[in-house]
Input
Amino acid sequence: MVVDPSEALASSLPQPLTPLIGRSREVGEIIALLTRGCVRLITLTGPGGIGKTRLGLRVAAELADGHVDEVAFVPLASIADPGDVPASVAKALGLCDGMGRSLPHRVAAYVQTRSLLLLMDNFEHVSAVAPLLTEMLAAVPRLTLLVTSRVVLRLSAEHVYPVPSLALPPLDGTRSARDVLASEAVQLFVARSVAAHPRFTLDDETAPTVAELCHRLDGLPLALELAAARARVLPPAALLDRIGHRLALLTGGACDQPARLRTMRDAIAWSDGLLLPDERCLFAKLAVFAGGFTIAAAASVAHGGQPKGGTIDGVSTLVDASLVRQAGESADEPRFEMLETIREYGLERLRASGAETTTRDRHATWMLGLVEAAWPPGAVAPTGPVALASLDAERDNVRAALSWLIGRGDAAGALRLTGALAEYWCLRGDLVEGRSWIGRSLALPAGPPRLRSAALYGGGIVADFQGDRAAAIGMGEECLALAYAHGDTLDQLRARFLLSGMTDVVTGSGEVMTNEQSALALARQLGDPGWLCYTVMQMGHAVRRRGGLVLAVDHYEEALRLAMVAGDPWAEMSTALPLASAVDALGDRGRAVRLFMRLIDLSREMASPSSTLRVMLGLATFSASAGHPEVAASLLGAADAMGEQIGLILSPDDRRIHDDVSASTRHHLGEHAFQSALRSGRMAPIDHAFAEATRAAAMLGGAGPLEGVRGLSLTSRELEVLLLVAAGRTNPEIGAVLFISRGTAGTHVSNILAKLGVRSRAEAVDAAHRAGIDFTLPVGRTSI
Output
């Protein structure tokens, strides 16, 4: 019988009892490296259970088929003494006693002119003898080494290949069984589940649960296999319910596996045992980070903010030991992370060490410092997009810090952190989550009044964004009471600002003063340009709600100037939107176009879902008034989808505007075309919606009725009065709306009649109509 030499060589490798699932990309990359000629030592690294040995065996088998003359497998897991490595290599090659010659010379004599691939498996615990590999490569030119190890060997000839987790399915909410089964992780889980329970099936109903389960297990092959072994008694939903305690669940591996691979805890403990005491301590402390960390964060939490040099070395060691990995590529400061299964083990070690309280307190303090650097206490806007993006990367760490503070009843810490995060949650559209955290913080006993006041203000803002005005008023009034109790001007201002447009207040002298007026006075007293900008804008909303459109424009323009002077893009976005709406209502379409173009750019730059939603609503109103009902309906659909996604409820005024635009566009398009455009907007990416709005706005512009009315030599205040005359307001009512006396209002009416050359209010309105002014003006609160 003739045996193919390549088959004989491949058969000298251990033959796995189960097929390798996936890994074709990794096999191809490793073979490409080894066949270049310049790479002779590759170390396959990764945590226990990632599948290094199986991958190494597949690569070796592929190379045995025509790439090298001989392949040999050197198992090292059972070796306790690094000094026994030469004997293991000699045994794998069938070498006789060397009679005093070194292993490199013996291998060189054995190989001679042939090419040899040595697969050295589980090298991590004998890495002290790693220099022997360099000697062998120097003595044997046609030798190639493929090593599996949980630690990097740090040899000059070494090419490190980190073995990744298995490819995971997308979590996009539309996962059929067919789509989910395209991922390697799901394929492995299903194959092992069927082996454990032949009746196991993956269908469209169980596919989303299995996809989530594979994600929660990090796509780690050993974890997937151990979980699948439970399929005998636990269906996927039950497994997912128990996944919070992975290490207790992931046990019961096959008895013919090495002990270190029968449970996930044993697999990780094997790596942990290779660390020095200081490295083991750092590993446990870094487990408090959820979702990753930077070197600066690690230094602050693990080493109390001491110089980062030692932290860099420690993190590097943990990366080399495959307990920590770099989280993607970044041109800025790199981030690192732990697989969740490894992190759970690290937290167990942290609790056992007695250092959990100190470490978690440091983590919460670090998180608070980062939040307040991005959004300083009392500031009306963040320090900039970059600072805000830094919070985006730490959302899981925010949750971990808040869970710790609330869990131990630290009211001061929890209130301070939630108060600082409230408006961030609004900007990013995390309304449901933000309100939940604020509510839990406010429910804690005690807590310093100033911190409680800040959290109440934040909770009121979030509630208002959700359309729950009753809750917003309640928190605003409690915030105001606390502010007066401890005499804090900023807290009084924030409470008045929150209550703007919701309630009126009565001064000690019995005079009625709006919260907008009170907030503006407090802002001027405080002297903060950001707060002054926003309170001036709120005054604009107040007078517009009372029908004072031109005066509202004056306030919006002043607010926009303050925002531009401050260089605050958030304030610019907040003030430009109501100004665009107001000037469009007055007929100045050219300026409205320019403002909306700028708002589109700001929306893309700021990436704030709540702000973008209101820009969409404003653009829909604008498109409808400009004769583009299909675009308006599409933008309404985009706004609706975004609102549902972030849980934002439109204010009553915004809802009225939305419904008016919806009714108008439905009337112009017909029900079928309206619903089609609405669905198109709901399904389209946000950039597509912006592109449609930009295209529509670019077709508009030019002079409008406002210029015609101004040609009649009416002042802005006189035009304001004329609009109120057209609305049927009496002189006392005009005075109340514009905050002027009854006599001054009468004087303005007389001047208008004289300038227009008419004798009555009705004739004045007719003259204005002929000049082109539109008195069917929408009113409503359009703040962001």
Observations:
- The chain has a mean pLDDT of 83.
- The domain at 5-162 is CATH 3.40.50.300 (Rossmann fold).
